[in-house]
User: What shape does this take?
Amino acid sequence: MSEAVATGVTVRRDGGVATVAIDRPAKRNALTFAMYRALNAAITEADADPDVRVIVLTGSGGAFTAGNDLADFLSGKDVVGGEESAVLGFQRAVLERGTILIAAVDGSAVGIGATVLLHCDLVYATERSYLQFPFVDIGLVPEFGSSLLLPRRVGAVRAAEILLLGDRLPAARAAELGLVNQIFADHETLLAHVTEQASRLLAKPSAAVAATWALLHGNPDQTTRQRMVDESARFSDLLSSPAAVQRLEGFLNGRK
Assistant: This one.
């Protein structure tokens, strides 16, 4: 196991899992521009490492992240919408990655802390957690593609309620809406489950996992017929792979 620390961000490597923790508990893990750059670097480096097959994004000290550090944003040190924006750099790193991303949420997931969850492959949370999209209340608009992704996920009417009113969305309700996979009693149980799920993914045939992930993240505007063609091509490629042959023979011989 290895660990590295940047400004407000901790990165820990344990085998094929890289855990990226937002680590500024005194400010409920509110994100500064420097932290966005550190998160960008951490996710980009983990994604580029062929030995890393799962990235876990989490917080520390009882919060996922309270969103942006508003004082830092108002300082004018970064052009939020510009090409060199630290915020967009982080968003691109998440959006363009090719590695499974699991979110382990304990506590508040506010602003970008909520919108980033729409881009994670698996999301687990504690009972005390909540999501909040407060953009309108502070005179802004939703970001990270959430005005497109949230209606697709929960429907237009519910998305309008969440984005326009900006109320807290308790973890249990988020799970009902399909924004969270599963809820756990406390932080320790949450992390134990995330570790278990990451281990299960690592134990599966890597090529099959990667191909399935790619299909899940494929063009959402494809027709069913187009997607069937893509699936068939990947299916055929994998069918003769050593991992698939070994697994299929195992099933035929009654082995798990």
User: Anything to note?
Assistant: The mean pLDDT is 94. Strands lie at 2-6, 9-14, 17-22, 54-59, 100-105, 108-110, 122-126, 130-132, 169-170, 182-184.
